[in-house]
Amino acid sequence: MVTLSEENYLKTIFHLGRHEKASVSTNAIAQKMETKASSATDMIKKLSEKGLVDYQKYKGVQLSENGRLAAISVIRKHRLWEVFLVNKLSFSWDEVHEVAEQLEHIKSEKLTLELESFLDYPTQDPHGDPIPDSNGSIPSTQKLLLAKVKQGHQCICVGVKDSSSEFLKYLDKYKIALGSQIKVISKEAYDESMTLKINDIQKTISKEVAQNLFVKTN
Amino acid sequence: MVTLSEENYLKTIFHLGRHEKASVSTNAIAQKMETKASSATDMIKKLSEKGLVDYQKYKGVQLSENGRLAAISVIRKHRLWEVFLVNKLSFSWDEVHEVAEQLEHIKSEKLTLELESFLDYPTQDPHGDPIPDSNGSIPSTQKLLLAKVKQGHQCICVGVKDSSSEFLKYLDKYKIALGSQIKVISKEAYDESMTLKINDIQKTISKEVAQNLFVKTN
DNA sequence: CTTAAAGTTTAGTTAAGACTAAAAATTTAT
DNA sequence: ATAAATTTTTAGTCTTAACTAAACTTTAAG
């Protein structure tokens, strides 16, 4: 049995280790979990004893196969619930995170499968993140940061890197949503701001925004 | 803030105190919670300090107004989720309890309200129990135990007293459901068994069954 | 009306998951 | 290459919610 707290740590380790092959540091975990390094060490030991992570003192951790599956299961539930909240109840994409953080810990295989079916097997959540299937496979999408798109090129918004309520509300304000057509009109070398044409409306965005929007070129 | 454990105690005290005006005993609470009396005493003290129950040593507890509202809120969520599981996902009425026990603790006023709306404001759960509204009012229904119905009388099944999976499966087996037409053909004085006509099929049920089915006479 | 039985509370432990402070290991910089 | 800085771990404490065992109330029986 994996406790709620253990699930949260596994999820954090998964996200931190997602893009590096190197192991995840105690401090990084503590910071993301908004706790102290000593607490993280305690939990790491527990996860290690349960075979959910590979751990060597002072060398950080990596998820074991079982740990990876447990983390993905939680992430799968989180994202399915987000789809439910947005598509079935009238939540907006900036309101779902907190509630999904609670719902992701509900333990019922049947519930998850039935929910997935009820939602018509969605492949991504309201922020464009992929939803793992029941075997733990994560559909891969070829997306890149808007900041990397060259001047003159056209693309479609397919996801957000920062899914904080503040950023999502900013996007709402300027009618930027998943599926929006974006053309890069110009890039400013000085501050890395970009001028875009979004669904035919011109708008200049900062580096911060460009580095938190995922797009697909077409 | 009310913890998960506190919510479970409040719910138990509510159910135990439902039909008596007298206060609820420590032992009764401990038994329902499947814990020890000493643990119940500890929790009762905590609830008392939080103003959720009125407590006098050796004299049992009663819910305060705040405690009653907190208990009803949990019961409301439990029953709404049960409706969701049965009506929207394909759960049967004997499968919902365990999952609803988890879902009832999700904290989000918006979620509860949106869920209620999505389900079209149901007034009862899949077992015929009333669903409290957002103010904490519980719609009252005039129902009585089938065991109390006199020979020759006609009634409709409107609820179950025992909502254990075993009892619900028994009812499924003999096609007894909410809404079933029941006519009392005869009652056996010796063992209090009853012979019924249920949706035109004759069936003899034991005292145990008759005492766990709620009906409405018509 | 006193004593036995039953019910309740208190006192002292335990486990999980957090914390602080201090020690130990690793990394960085001179 | 060693000292300083940073990171990580250890040791000891706290809180929540459970437990056992013992003490104390209340209730029931004779």
How is this structure best described in words?
- The structure is a homodimer of 218-residue chains.
- Chain A is of the alpha+beta class and 218 residues long.
- Chain A is built from eight helices and eight strands, in the order αααββαααββαβββαβ.
- Chain A has a six-stranded antiparallel beta sheet with strand order 3-8-4-5-6-7. In chain A, strands 1-2 form a two-stranded antiparallel sheet.
- In chain A, a hairpin with a 2-residue loop joins strand 6 and strand 7.
- In chain A, helix 1 crosses helix 4 and helix 2 packs across helix 3.
- Chain A is globular.
- The relative contact order of chain A is 0.10.
- The mean pLDDT of chain A is 96.
- Chains A and B meet through helix 5 and helix 6 of A and helix 5 and helix 6 of B.
Residue ranges of chain A: pLDDT <50 for 5 or more in a row? Answer: none
Strand content of chain A: 15-25%
Assign a percent range to the helix content of chain A. 40-55%
- Assembly type: homodimer
- Give me the number of helical elements of chain A: 8
H/E series of chain A:
HHHEEHHHEEHEEEHE
Largest interface: A-B, 19 and 19 residues
Overall structural class of chain A, as computed from helix and strand content, comes to alpha+beta
Distance between the termini of chain A: 46 Å
Annotation, overall tally of beta strands of chain A: 8
Q: How confident is the prediction overall: mean pLDDT of chain A?
A: 96
